[in-house]
Design brief:
single chain, 340 residues, alpha/beta, Rossmann fold, seven-stranded parallel sheet, three-stranded mixed sheet, 11 helices, binds nicotinamide-adenine-dinucleotide, binds UDP-4-deoxy-4-formamido-beta-L-arabinopyranose
């Protein structure tokens, strides 16, 4: 059992709120630092209902050095899990400066504050987007990196900044975690993904069709060179992803250095397979129409997850039907997300 305090930037968001639960289960004391630009404070009550512990919460922006210094002054953090960031690919094309400012400058401010506080263990939320359009699957960590939009480039830049930092100051412990496609929700149905406006991602869009908030899903492309013509992705249950962060933290109990690790299942699921699995979970037909490809999309992408198993002793254990069952429970219990 550990009572280590862990700072969760972006802690009120989708993935970090689930990681909060996993950290409490593992005996850590997470502290949420979030400016709530893409999350709802109701998540804090829900986290208390799930864990029985009222979350420690600081409302602040990672670009605010004074707010960060105050947080590091108030708590003796053992490590930082850095989730805070803007993540909408399309919006990043419209607003590149905002994305670089928030994601890249925000991370620089965070790193400077960590150094001032002498907290040098960091787990960073990177993304499979840094692989661009991978030449083959499964995708291995050593594959070439590229970006096709400012969001992806911000992740790539941060990965490089972290690499340069470690080269210069080898007393840092850094995990760059490349998430594949997080999906599902906590099994309680009390927390989940709550996108503002039209969902960009597949699972929340399907869930909103199922609950009657949207008329039908547009399937972006039916002519990809995949078994059924639709895109194939590595959907990973968000609680598996959350537990991957606990495993990464524990890794640094016995090891030091910089690691770059895929967090995925190693299995590809097509858009049509996801629709069918969700229909099974909700007991309804999902209306959909196959239309044009979405610009920038790739045909298929799934992880080689072997390194996570080797380094962290972690692998995803939940199935596609766990993801759709839990995603549907969250959506059906909260038809308008945290507005309910
Ligand atoms: P999210 O938007 O639900 O959570 C991000 C949180 O960060 C939000 O609560 C937001 O309010 C907060 N935030 C943003 N900018 C901030 C700032 N300047 N200061 C303080 N808080 C700030 O997103 P998520 O899906 O939970 O993603 C978490 C992280 O994982 C992001 O860095 C994202 O890029 C990365 N990631 C997400 C996915 C995905 O598909 N969801 C995939 C790969 C990587
Ligand atoms: C999955 C599949 C779509 C919506 C994105 C980001 C990536 C990462 C994860 C943060 C694709 C299809 C989708 C819809 C559809 N995020 N689709 N109709 O594109 O793999 O990755 O989220 O790092 O950076 O790019 O995920 O959920 O948007 O799409 O047919 O309404 O579903 O074409 O094949 P993607 P996604």
């Amino acid at each position: 059992m550990t009572t280590q305090k862990i700072l969760l930037t972006g802690g009120a968001g989708f993935i970090a709120s689930h990681t909060f639960v996993a950290l409490i289960t593992a005996g850590y004391t997470p502290v949420i630092f979030d400016n709530l630009c893409n999350s709802n404070p109701k998540v804090l009550d829900r986290l208390e209902r799930i864990t029985g512990i009222a979350p420690l919460f600081i409302r602040g922006d990672i670009r605010d050095a004074a707010a960060l210094d105050a947080a590091f002054g108030a708590h003796a953090f053992a490590a930082v899990l850095h989730f805070a960031g803007l993540k909408a690919v399309g919006e990043s094309v419209e607003k590149p400066l905002e994305y670089y400012d928030n994601n890249v400058r925000g991370t620089l401010e965070l790193l400077a504050a960590m150094r001032r506080a002498n907290v040098k263990t960091l787990v960073f939320s990177s993304s499979a987007t840094v692989y661009g359009d991978p030449a083959t699957t499964p995708v291995h960590e050593a594959f070439p990196l590229s970006a096709t939009n400012p969001y992806g480039r911000s992740k790539l830049m941060i990965e490089e900044i972290l690499g340069d930092l470690f080269k210069a100051e080898s007393d840092w412990n850094i995990a760059r975690l490349r998430y594949f496609n997080p999906a599902g929700a906590h099994e309680s149905g009390l927390i989940g993904e709550d996108p503002q406006g039209i969902p960009n991602n597949l699972m929340p869009y399907i869930a909103q069709v199922a609950v009657g908030r949207r008329a039908q899903l547009q399937v972006f492309g039916g002519d990809y060179p995949t078994p059924d013509g639709t895109g194939v992705r590595d959907f990973i249950h968000v609680m598996d992803l959350a537990e991957g962060h606990v495993a990464a933290l524990k890794y640094f109990d016995g090891a030091t250095g910089l690691v770059t690790v895929n967090l995925g299942t190693g299995k590809g699921v097509s858009v049509l397979q996801m629709i069918a699995a969700f229909e099974e979970a909700c007991g309804k037909k999902i209306a959909y129409q196959i239309g044009a490809r979405r610009p920038g999309d790739i045909a298929e992408c799934w992880a080689d997850p072997a390194l996570a198993q080797k380094l962290f002793g972690w692998s995803a254990s939940r199935t596609l039907s766990d993801m759709t069952r839990d995603g549907w429970r969250w959506q059906s219990m909260n038809p308008t997300g945290f507005l309910d």
